[in-house]
Amino acid sequence: MQTNQTNNQPTTNKRTIPFGGVLLVVAGIFILLQQFVDFEVSGGVFLGALGLFFILWGATQRKAGLLIPGGILSGLSVGVFLVEDLSNVVAAELEGGVILLSLAAGFGLITLLSRLFTEEKHWWALIVCAALTLIGSGVMVLENPNATTWQPIVEAVFAASNYLWALAIIAVGLWLIFGRSEAA
Fold first, then answer.
1. Whole-model pTM above 0.90?
2. 144-169 residue pLDDT tens
3. What secondary structure, in 3-state letters, does the chain show?
């Protein structure tokens, strides 16, 4: 066993898995195989595999920065899989809402994974999750021909949100200009 000369502590020769290199090798093999073998991989499966790769990489390295693309890609993969591969399950007019709700689930997954595998707390992802859930649900209501009762309500909320978003952005800008300069 070696010792570190600055503090005489034993050092371990811990070898980490070079996930970036593994990803490139797997991608290269996949691309090479497609030249000789005719097989199709759907977008949902591809995104899911890529998302799982980032989740495993982030979990083993205990790095939340890798769990973020893993959660986003995994959530998006579910939506793409439902819309692309199980098109008989999801009605065509609901596809946009399904994609948004699946993406929302992916952002929710970021908070869960970061709490499980790291010391970091990524609560911000729940804000994105909530926003995407509201928008995705609204899109599904607006595009659903059977939801005639809720459509006028959702249309009014979406119309009002055009003004509310603008006011919120102005308020944050003013706070950054005036509120932060006084505290500094």
1. no
2. 878 778 888 888 888 888 888 888 88
3. CEECCCCCCEECCCCCCCHHHHHHHHHHHHHHHHHHCCCCCCHHHHHHHHHHHHHHHHHHHCCHHHHHHHHHHHHHHHHHHHHHHCCCCCCHHHHHHHHHHHHHHHHHHHHHHHHHHCCCCCCHHHHHHHHHHHHHHHHHHHHCCCCCCCHHHHHHHHHHHHHHHHHHHHHHHHHHHHHHHHHC
